[in-house]
Amino acid sequence: MTPKVAQKVVDFAFQKSQAAKRLEIGFFGGEPLLEFERVKLIVELIKNHPLYDKSKVIMSITSNGTIFNQEIANFMLSNGIIFCVSCDGPPQIQDVNRKYKNGKSSSAAVEKTIKKALQYFPFLPVNAVYSDQTLQYLPQTVDYLISLGVKNIYLNPDISAKWTQKHTEQFPEIYSALAEKYIQCYLQDKPKHISLIDNKITVILRGGYEPFERCQMGFSEFAFGTTGNMYPCERLVGLDDGKTNCLGNIMDDIIKPSTCKIVPSTATNTECNHCGLNGYCMNWCGCTNYHSTGKYDVVSAFMCAHERAIIEVAYQTIQKLQEKGVDLSHHIHGTPLINTLSDFGDHCNK
Q1: How many domains are there within the chain?
Q2: Residue 74 CB neighbours (<10 A)
Q3: Residue 153 vs residues 64, 119, 199: alpha-carbon distances, Å
Q4: Distance (Å, rounded) from C-alpha 117 to C-alpha 33?
Q5: Is the pTM of this model over 0.70?
Q6: Is the pLDDT reported for residue 350 higher than 70?
Q7: The pLDDT value given to residue 57
Q8: 197 in any annotated domain
Q9: Which of 183-197, 226-240, 263-277, 332-346 has the lowest mean pLDDT?
Q10: Alpha-carbon torsion 27, 33, 38, 39, what sign?
């Protein structure tokens, strides 16, 4: 991304978010740290912008974990940037979908990065993507990340994977196994943030998703390719062909109305309208729907089974923890992610 394009994107972000309480700017790839000098330049553009407010702007970098050093750590600490590493699990799981271009394993390099990064970022978020090929090993992935010292674990299904009914039938058992690990961590007074469980606990205790938690793609959430092509979500950039899901180019100052703005309200599936879990379900996630069904507002059988399983498991987890006298009020007073960001900020200020 050229400095000229970057400046236009930064200007757009600040103008669009003037009335918002928070502006989140994330660097994604590919691998953004391959262009570390360019990342530093863009961060300077952000911090030097007339509308920049340190208390309002949250910057993050999502890396595949193959690049990390002292200079990168110092830069992120000094600028209050959240560092997130993607790691799908131990070597035999990580290397299913994350080998180097030459076929070499990436697991050793990523494990080394996680261990080193945790010295600087105790609340380092680690994102594990699981697919139809690795679903059964999800509990093993959690064990592995915890063994490395990770406290902030994000588990996300590969929304473009070839999910079948056989896979979806496994969701309840596998998610229940995750919940048991989550419960044991709490009972040992060593709680971990495991996104699949934590996020649903928050939603259940609140009585459903708040409007600001729902999909904002094409409304207050945007993604930009290197040439300035604008998309409604980073998971819809794809090949960045300037056509599929593209809203226009930031350099042209012509942005098309987004057809996905209907998504934040509800999905159009008839069965969703009559489902008792509707308010607790992510059926409004436009990018997941698109990758699964080709429509922003049509939910797939995979998504339905996934959400039903994790909602039921989260509800059971709440009951078990409350029976043990565990206080879950911190889930109500701010989402787990917001709590994590607050902790991160406190750490940086120290």
Answers
A1: 1
A2: 11
A3: 15, 17, 12
A4: 14
A5: yes
A6: no
A7: 97
A8: yes
A9: 332-346
A10: positive
- Here the tokens at position 156 are 């996300």
Helix, strand, coil distribution of the chain in percent, nearest 5: 50, 10, 40
User: Alpha-carbon distance 249 to 229, whole Å?
Assistant: 4
Dist CA 46 CA 37 (whole Å): 14
| Range of lowest pLDDT (182-186, 208-212, 328-332) | 328-332
Residues 6+ apart with CB under 8 A from 210: none
Is residue 101 situated within a structural domain?
A: no
What pairs with residue 5 in β-bridges? none
Residue 6 lies in a domain: no
Q: Do residues 178 and 304 touch, judged by C-beta distance below 8 A?
A: no
The residues pairing with 127 across neighbouring beta strands, listed in sequence order, are: 86, 154
State the amino acid at position 208 in one-letter form: G
Q: Residue 22 belongs to what H/E stretch?
A: none
Residue 102 three-state SS? coil
What are the start-end ranges of the H helices in the chain?
A: 3-16, 36-47, 70-78, 91-97, 107-120, 138-148, 165-168, 171-187, 195-206, 270-273, 286-293, 301-323, 329-332, 336-349
Angle at 159 between CA 66 and CA 267, to 5 degrees: 140
What CA–CA distance (Å, rounded) separates 38 from 32? 9
pLDDT at 217: 87
Q: Can you give the residue range of the structural domain that contains 321?
A: 163-215+263-350
Examine residue 288 and state whether it is found in any structural domain, yes or no: yes
Report strand pairing: 125-130 vs 152-157. parallel
Cis check for the bond before 30: say yes or no (omega within 30 of 0).
Answer: yes
pLDDT in tens, 87-113: 999 999 999 999 999 999 999 999 999
Q: Sign of dihedral through CA atoms 226, 231, 232, 235? A: negative
User: Dihedrals φ, ψ of 324, to 5°?
Assistant: -90, 5
Provide the mean pLDDT of the chain: 90
